[in-house]
Design a protein that fits this description.
The protein is of the alpha/beta class. It has a single domain, classed as P-loop containing nucleotide triphosphate hydrolases (Rossmann fold, 3-Layer(aba) Sandwich). Helix content is about 30%, strand content about 30%. The chain has five helices and seven strands. The protein has a seven-stranded mixed β-sheet, with helices on one face. A hairpin with an 8-residue loop joins strand 6 and strand 7. The longest helix is centred in the N-terminal third of the chain and has 14 residues. About 35% of the residues are buried. The chain binds adenosine-5'-diphosphate and magnesium ion. The site of magnesium ion (MG) has 5 residues, from helix 2.
Length: about 150
Amino acid sequence: MELLLKFKTDSEYETAALGAKIGSLLKPGDIVALEGDLGAGKTHFTGGAARALGIDDYITSPTFTILNEYKGGRIPLYHYDLYRISSYDELTETGFEEYASEQAVIFIEWADRIPEIMRIYKNRITHVKILRRDDISPERRDIEIRRFEP
Ligand SMILES: Nc1ncnc2c1ncn2[C@@H]1O[C@H](COP(=O)(O)OP(=O)(O)O)[C@@H](O)[C@H]1O
Ligand SMILES: [Mg+2]
């Protein structure tokens, strides 16, 4: 069965606050797959979740480094950005499967670029889809959060 929750936000702060709510519910082994265009708010959402996990660092997209690690919170956070990754093999080379076997949470921006992630880790994934609604306002976002419940 699939659980689907729909939200709307009207500022980066509201998106971060929603990320914090999700972050506060996360358990070791959870994977958050973020989908949404450049500037949608994936990193602000992740930043809110990081704060809820007790991480004080300012969170930025690891667009060039692919991965940032934050060990200062109640659960370690691995933050991926797959904008420059084009295959599951390439992702594996970064150590992804090892990180996924740790007592940690993983946030993955552009997760939809690598469909294998959704297939292989289906039962552990919270899927967050952020849609800009420029037709309503430049700061409006529609955010869908999905989880597969086995
Ligand atoms: N409702 C909103 N939620 C998130 N970001 C917003 C919102 N409205 C405007 N913004 C702006 O959109 C940009 C989102 O940036 P970022 O979180 O880095 O996006 P992404 O990681 O998806 O590329 C920021 O400049 C932020 O100020
Ligand atoms: Mg980003």
